[in-house]
Amino acid sequence: MFMFRSTLLLCLAGALQAQTPGLGRALTPDEVRKLDITVAPNGAGLPAGSGSVAAGAAVFTQKCQGCHGAQGSGKPQDQLTGGVGSLASGKAVKTPVSYWPSATTLFDYIRRAMPYTAPQSLTNDEVYAVTAYLLSIDGVVPKDAVLDAKTLPAVKMPNKDGFVRWWPAPPR
């Protein structure tokens, strides 16, 4: 699937370049591969690496706590933890841990967009570690957890069954 998407991106880049005033150049397959960092709910696309809860606590303190508060408790739009079990309460607290159905989504978002001042600057090990740390705060993973491409997709999120799954596509 990723090869198909990469090929599609190359074709689109070539088509767009043909319709422009000739500025720039088409992306190489290697450049497209580096841009294609999507991680699927089933773990497809997860990179090599691993991270522990303890390492994640250190990275979070250094690179995340300024915006998200101690243990991800920032308010209101920057809260990352808490809210588990609140969705049907009438006072839902939607955090990645309480709301998102896949732990891989948390990894993907952190890797792609954080820290806000330097997106994509964290190493894969740091992203795995911060993901493990955030999931441990609400007890989704144990305090001694180490996450990697094999263990992360197996994490059962509290709201896993709160969404309709279209991945992979349902049979027709």
Q: What do you see in this structure?
A:
With 172 residues, the protein is mainly alpha-helical. It has two domains: 2-35, no CATH class; 50-161, Cytochrome c-like domain (Cytochrome Bc1 Complex, Chain D, domain 2). The chain is built from seven helices and two strands, in the order H-H-E-H-H-H-H-H-E. It has helices at 2-18, 29-35, 53-63, 65-68, 96-99, 103-113, 124-137, and strands at 50-52, 146-148. It has a two-stranded antiparallel sheet with strand order 1-2. Helix 3 crosses helix 7 and helix 6 packs across helix 7.
For the sheet with most strands, the description reads: 2 strands, antiparallel
Provide the helix percentage: 25-40%
By CATH, the superfamily of the largest domain comes out as Cytochrome c-like domain
Radius of gyration: 18 Å
Q: Which regions have little confidence, pLDDT < 50, spanning 5+ residues?
A: none
Total number of β-strand segments? 2
Number of helices: 7
Question: What structural class is derived from the secondary structure elements?
Answer: mainly alpha
In CATH terms, what is the fold-level topology of the largest domain? Cytochrome Bc1 Complex, Chain D, domain 2
**SSE succession:** HHEHHHHHE
How do you describe this structure in short?
The chain is mainly α and 172 residues long. The protein contains 7 helices and 2 strands.
